[in-house]
Amino acid sequence: MGAAPDTPQAAFARFVRRAIDDARDQRGWTVTDLATHTGVGRSTVFRWLAGDWQDYPELAKVRGFCAALDVPVTAAFRALGLPNGEAGPGGTTSDDQVDADIRVILGRLADPGVPVEEKKLIRDLLSYLASRPVRRQDQPSRRITRRAG
Question: What is the block-wise mean pLDDT of the chain (149 residues), using blocks of 10 residues?
Answer without folding.
Answer: 70 93 93 91 93 85 90 87 57 62 81 88 86 68 54
